[in-house]
Amino acid sequence: MKTYYFCKEESKMPEEAKEQKTVPKGRIHMLDELRGFALVFMVIYHAFYTIGYFFNWSWGRDIINILYPIGPVFAGAFIFISGISSNLSHSNIDRGARLFFIAYIVSIVTFFAIGSENAIRFGVLHMLSVCMMMYGLMSRILKVIPLWVGIIFNVLLFILTIPVPEGKIAIPFLWEMNLPTEWYMTDFLYPLGFIKNGFSSGDFFPLLPWLFLFFAGTYFGRLAVKKKLPKFTYKSHIKPLAFLGRHSLLIYLAHQPVIFGICTLVEMLLKLKN
Question: Is 158 exposed, middle or buried (0-12, 13-18, 19+ CB in 10 A)?
């Protein structure tokens, strides 16, 4: 319920009203824009990957080699923003469960469409769905931890667990420790990053390390809940990117079939021309 103050001069307004005037309201448009920007990169990356590795056009592989080093940066930004957004939601368990269902529909479709070797067994949707449900279940406990402690702790754990799929944990250039090889000999621990020889997934985002980046985002999201982010983050800057960010799930589900369709059409036209 809004409170209105009928005063001729701002100086006569109650202090509470002054504070309310300075607090930004509404959607945090910059989060949508950043999510949209990361989404654009993902679509471009997947387009050239499809061109290079599914349609065997060498120039696609050349471009992927250029884009590959910066791919994790955009993926990380998308996951961090998803963590922020989860702190703004009151239904993370339900959202996570629905996304988990959608993710495994994607797994089934890719299994039959492109074969078991390229099927998505645990991609970004699987990982985000589990993170959402875990946050929904643990949010009361996690909120006991101070904001900056939570951010720093989770960022450190993220860095430490980046090489888990390679069989170790490490602090870059300082220290590393090999993990038990038994963890990497099963067929069911791959969601955690403990992958067996011969494991393949068309899109792979294990919980370790990405869970901790997601949780770091949830702590940063407290600033959004308290409306303590800079004022410019609440303003709309690039509406097309914001639109993409608000519809990221739909675009993620649709972009690969569209890319495959376009590439198939181009390939058919080239064959007819030759």
Answer: buried
- The SS3 assignment for 42 reads helix
What residues contact 13, with CB distance under 8 A and at least 6 apart? Answer: 5, 7, 21
> Which pTM does this prediction carry?
0.86
Q: What is the identity of the amino acid at 135?
A: Y
Residue range 47-98, pLDDT digits in tens:
999 999 989 999 999 999 999 999 999 999 999 999 999 988 878 999 999 9
User: What whole-number distance in Å separates Cα of residue 214 and Cα of residue 212?
Assistant: 5
Nearest to 73 by CA among 33, 32, 126, 37: 37
Token digits of residue 44: 């471009």
Cα distances (Å, whole numbers) of residue 39 to 7, 78, 251? 47, 8, 8
What digits encode the pLDDT tens for the residues 90-101?
789 999 999 999
CA distances from 203 to 48, 149, 153, 196 (A): 14, 32, 27, 16
Contact 207, 194 (CB under 8 A): no
Predicted confidence (pLDDT) at residue 183 exceeds the cutoff of 50: yes
Q: What share of the chain is helix, strand, coil (3-state, %, to 5)?
A: 70, 5, 25
Instruction: Name which of 85, 199, 167, 189 is nearest 131 in CA terms.
Output: 85
Q: Which two tokens stand for residue 184?
A: 């990497």
Beta strands in 100-245 (DSSP E): 168-171, 175-178
d(CA 127, CA 192): 9
